[in-house]
């Protein structure tokens, strides 16, 4: 299946660079470009891309507002935030807006390509560095009331939720709990379904907002 990509960035040279990079991949096709957030919203509705590469700082409408508008009309959209900034405020806003991951514009090309594939597959892309910032932020903020759906999780699913919040991959969770990676994937799928969450990013946010991630983790 071809991964359809929309590139939203106000710099034409950046868009051209990403287009050239992705054009070399047989499983990817750049279906549209946008030079501001308003165009990104319109292009997303028109072309229905698999993944949207979204710059944060753009004129007319910034990438965060564009992300919110796109997801308000299509909650299945996969948005990968492009940024040259490591400012925490953008990370939290983008997480809250529903972004599926983050990529730095100066990351190695192979990292960007892999990021697009990861997000297209329905996984979230949250690097350990980003996860650490999320942890530091949410441990300083007031906790939210846990959703009643948490009561539906089994003890094993709660264990896995806490490990996801620590930034562990499925393979790392399997090693931690002495279970197979396929079993972990099944549990993660059940967690997302029961909590009505889109991806692992939202699991991380929920875990820290409710204080679950700061409780004792399994051994």
What this model shows, in words?
- The structure is a single chain.
- The chain has 219 residues and is an alpha/beta fold.
- The protein has two domains: 123 residues, Rossmann fold; 72 residues, Arc Repressor Mutant, subunit A.
- It has ten helices and five strands, in the order E-H-E-H-E-H-E-H-E-H-H-H-H-H-H.
- The protein has a five-stranded parallel β-sheet, sandwiched between helices.
- Strand 4, helix 4 and strand 5 form a beta-alpha-beta unit.
- Helix 2 packs parallel to helix 3, helix 3 runs parallel beside helix 4 and helix 7 packs across helix 9.
- The protein is globular, with a radius of gyration of 18 Å.
Topology:
Elements: E1 3-8, H1 12-23, E2 28-34, H2 37-47, E3 51-55, H3 63-73, E4 78-83, H4 88-97, E5 101-104, H5 109-120, H6 128-138, H7 155-165, H8 170-177, H9 181-195, H10 200-209
Parallel strand pairs: 1-2, 1-3, 3-4, 4-5
Helix pairs in contact: 2-3, 3-4, 6-10, 7-9, 7-10, 8-9
CATH-defined topology of the largest domain: Rossmann fold
What summary fits the major beta sheet? 5 strands, parallel
Q: What is the overall silhouette?
A: globular
Weakly predicted, low-confidence segments:
none
Spell out the key features of this protein.
Arc Repressor Mutant, subunit A; 51% helix; alpha/beta; globular; 219 residues; Rossmann fold; 5-stranded parallel beta sheet; 5 strands
What's this model, at a glance?
The chain is of the alpha/beta class. It has 2 domains: about 5-125, 3-Layer(aba) Sandwich (Rossmann fold), CATH 3.40.50.2300; about 145-215, Winged helix-like DNA-binding domain superfamily/Winged helix DNA-binding domain (Arc Repressor Mutant, subunit A, Orthogonal Bundle), CATH 1.10.10.10.
């Amino acid at each position: 299946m071809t991964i359809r990509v929309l590139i939203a960035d106000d710099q034409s040279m950046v868009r051209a660079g990403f287009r050239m990079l992705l054009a070399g991949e047989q499983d990817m096709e750049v279906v549209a470009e946008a030079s501001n957030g308003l165009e990104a919203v319109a292009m997303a509705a028109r072309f229905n891309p698999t993944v949207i590469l979204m710059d944060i700082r753009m004129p007319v409408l910034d990438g965060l507002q564009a992300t919110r508008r796109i997801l308000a009309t299509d909650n299945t959209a996969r948005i990968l935030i492009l940024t040259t900034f490591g400012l925490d405020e953008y990370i939290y806003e983008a997480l809250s807006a529903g972004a599926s991951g983050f990529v730095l514009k100066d990351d190695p090309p192979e990292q960007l390509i892999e990021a697009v594939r990861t997000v297209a597959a329905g996984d979230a892309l949250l690097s350990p560095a980003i996860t650490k910032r999320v942890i530091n932020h949410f441990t300083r903020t007031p906790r939210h009331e846990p959703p009643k759906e948490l009561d539906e999780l089994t003890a094993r699913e709660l264990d896995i939720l806490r490990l996801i919040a620590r930034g562990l991959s499925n393979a790392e969770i399997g090693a931690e709990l002495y279970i197979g990676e396929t079993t972990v994937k099944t549990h993660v799928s059940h967690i997302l379904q029961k909590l009505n969450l889109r991806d692992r990013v939202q699991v991380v946010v929920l875990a820290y907002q409710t204080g679950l991630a700061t409780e004792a983790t399994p051994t």
